[in-house]
Design brief:
Blueprint (H helix, E strand, L loop, with lengths): L6 H11 L2 H22 L1
Length: about 40
Amino acid sequence: MTSPGGTTIAALLVLETAGLRRILMRAVEAAWRRSQELSKKN
């Protein structure tokens, strides 16, 4: 939860503007792909 005009929302807006959501999604997708590769080896 954030307060309107508060410090947390200010930080979240910077992260969103910098593309953090896209970066996190790419990282999760890479981990998922690697887990699929590893599961095929077993």
